[in-house]
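Dear colleague,

Thank you for sharing your sequence with our group. We've completed the structure prediction you requested, and as agreed, I am returning the results in plain text so they can be pasted directly into your records. Please verify that the sequence below matches your submission; if there's any discrepancy, let me know and we will rerun it promptly.
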Amino acid sequence: MLIFFDGLDGIYVGKEDKLKKFIEAIYWIVRTGAQWRELPEIYGNWNSIYARFNEWSKKGIWDKLMVFCIQDPDLEYVSIDATILRAHACSAGYGEQAEQGLGRSKGGFSTKIHAKVDALGNPLKLLVTAGQCSDFSKAPELIKGETGSYMIGDKGYDSDEVRAQICAQECIPVIPGKSNRKITIQYDKHIYKERNVVECFFSKLKQFRRVFSRFDKSIRNFGSFLSFVGAILWLR
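Please find the predicted structure tokens below.
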């Protein structure tokens, strides 16, 4: 028997071989971006796999899995940023679009991923919003809880409120000022170069086609795939 990660209601216990095959099935789905119906029979019945994935998503197990995998992060520098990705038309139709992290643009539906990574580019927190939401909108939630770090972000996070929150948490903001500021913002340009780790993280994230193009109707299931990929990147 295998004792797996704790869900909301206690420790999940299952046969090791079946659980391993289930995790491999989810990895195949997130890596290829294929429809659930295209899941190879070697992994089992696709509908059963999906039902189990969905149930774990409801219980928050995938999110807790990523949190569990975060071991000894390098918090000297913490970088925040966001990236937009296209959402397939099949992702629409599940409740209000904005509530499900879907936004409309000239190119169609879009979703935005907000990320916080450590100094090595490993994910610490991932949030999903509609594509048209500003980077700044999720900044307070992203930086919440960090202390004693250099907080690195681009001009999209330049605001007095964000800077005040960073300083209140005993962190040092490394955020360039916008061009329309009357007073020039001073920041450490050498440390700012470390922001490239979050860009590299997005590049790794988009190697998984289920993330690169969103197919999931529910923001919960899409977020679960993000957490699963985040856990994989921590385990590499």
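Summary note from our side: Residues 74 and 102 are 33 Å apart (CA to CA).

Kind regards,
the structure core
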